[in-house]
Every structure is written in structure tokens, then in C-alpha cells.
Amino acid sequence: MKNLFLLIAFLFIFQPISAQLFSKEKVLNDENVDKAFLSYGYYIGFNSYDFNFDYVTDKKDIQVKKSTGFNVGLVGNMRINEYLDLRLEPGLYITTRLLEYDESYFQGIEYTSSDLEREVKSTYIHVPLLLKFSTKRLNNFKPFIVGGVSTALNLSSNQDNPDDNSAGKFRTKKNMYFYEIGFGIDFYLYYFKFTPSIRGVFAINDELVRDADPNSPWTGNIETMKTRGVFINFTFQ
Question: Is the pTM of this model over 0.85?
Fold first, then answer.
């Protein structure tokens, strides 16, 4: 009798848990959140920026020492249909990269150890326009892919600084253009929608401001220098 009671109790407890985990009839959180034509939110996250170099002549690659940066911004979402949304995600992205030059760049030139490194600080006002392609909602989550284009204003560019690397100033352009692609999952919680996502970002235009000397060891051998990066964002809507 005791074993029968335990079996009945187990089945009574297991049945609703099983229904929640394995059936298609879960209780839906925030059912109408995706039906609004316009919706808003915010995000915080992390970034890792890099540079991709093309060179004029074959020398050792300039090494880029990356660091983890910080992102914060807003989200504006326009619903097109059940599976497609147009998103505007303006934000502030802060990062630092350290360029390390090989000694071969300074052949025949007197240099110090500090000349072999250049710190590139970037503070981007980053504004992407993205299309979000979602699957059908699966209970309380919905995977998606996202892609689009963006522009960024680099507040730390030094573009207008008359000093260049000969005075220790590495300069980059203020205005940048990118294309972006990524994926994520919408999780529908009781009070809000939580979305972790990861996105790759690739510059379209050259970011380097060259030194006055065309044979500068810091910029003379660089044909193009384009930013690339990875964003991990956590969005709340």
C-alpha cells in the first residue's frame, strides 16, 4: 500500500512537470509582447575589438593586443510580421587595443622601446540598423538571426590632431561604417523578455589616418586597417 501511494504521488507530481518540459502546452509568459508594432528596451554587454590589416609590402604582421570593452544602449523595435522585425540599437561602445610593431619596421631608424607600441583607445557612438529573422515561438523561447549595417562616430579618434606618430599620437578616422551578422535567443520571462545575443561586426572603410611622412614606420606599410569585433549583448524588453 505504501509503495502504491508513493507511485501515485510520483505520477501526480511528475505529470505537470513533464507537461511543462516536454509538451507543447506550456504556460506562455508575456504572450502579447511581440504583437506591439513598436516596442523598446535597453541592453548592456561586452565587446572585443580587433584590427584587420592589409600591407603594402611583406613584413611581419602588426600584432593587436585586445581587451574586453563595455557596451550600453537602447533598442527600438518595429514589428513587420510574425517572423521579421526592424531594429535600431544605438549605443556607447568603449574599448582599447594595443598595437605591437616588429623591430623590422624601424630598420635604419633610431627608435626606443616605446616606439614599438601604440595604444588605440576608441569610444564609439555605434548606431546599427538591423533586420531580425525569428523562428516561430517555441513555448517561452524563440531563436533568431540578425544582420544589417551600422555607422559609428569615434569620439577618441584623434583625426583632427595635427600631431602624428612622430609625436606619439596614433590617429584613426571619426566616421566608420560596418556590416553586422549574429544570432540570439529571446527568453520570455514572467515580467519581461530577456535576450542574450552574439554579433560579429566588420568595417567597410579604412580607419587609419596616415602620418605626414609617407615612409612612416607606423603607417607607411599599411594599405588598409579595418576594425572587426565581437559583441555579446544582454537585452531587456
Answer: no
